Amino acid sequence: MRVNEEIRVREARVIDSNGQQLGIIPVREGMRVAAEQGLDLVEVAPQAKPPVCRIMDYGKYKYEQSKKERDARKKQRVINVKEVKIRPRIEEHDFQVKVRNARRFLTDGDKVKVTLMFRGREITHAALGHDLCMKFYKELEEQASMEKEPKVEGRNMIMVLVPRTQEQVKGD
């Protein structure tokens, strides 16, 4: 935004601090009116014909904008992707430990990437791996919804789970 002397046009549509239009007047006249009120003339719509300028306290405006950005950053949630690696011939207890870890990640609000690693000829039994991924999902069905179905990528089968929102839990 251009302020006061930075405004390069001769005439502009000027709006005063109360929102009343003063009409299309020379920029010098608008700056004089703004200076009388102890405010700044700010170009708010340079692409308009003629450009629109507003009389306002520019420092206060910038402060309020930065405050809004800070609040927006505070409310935003960073979602991490946690990975759980399993094997096709995993024992039941080890499987339950991995499920418990994934449940903890989901309750913390993180996504869970389940990677089923095949070794050697195990890849020929991809259907067994798919069944294991679906069993993993069934264990976490109350806390998670599936973002990405189990899919073989190279020697791994990958599935992504995301935490359910409160609305999804109530809807089921």
From TrEMBL:
Protein name: Translation initiation factor IF-3
UniProt gene name: infC
Subcellular location: Cytoplasm
Keywords: Cytoplasm, Initiation factor, Protein biosynthesis
A Pfam family: IF3_N
Residue ranges of every copy of the Translation initiation factor 3 N-terminal domain listed in the record: 3-72
Source species taxonomy: Bacteria, Bacillati, Bacillota, Clostridia, Thermoanaerobacterales
Translation initiation factor 3 C-terminal domain: residues covered: 79-163
GO BP term, pick one: ribosome disassembly
Quaternary structure note: Monomer.
GO CC annotations, alphabetized: cytosol; membrane
Superkingdom of source: Bacteria
Function: IF-3 binds to the 30S ribosomal subunit and shifts the equilibrium between 70S ribosomes and their 50S and 30S subunits in favor of the free subunits, thus enhancing the availability of 30S subunits on which protein synthesis initiation begins.
Annotated family: Belongs to the IF-3 family.
GO MF terms, alphabetically ordered: ribosome binding; translation initiation factor activity
Chief location of this protein within or outside the cell: cytoplasm
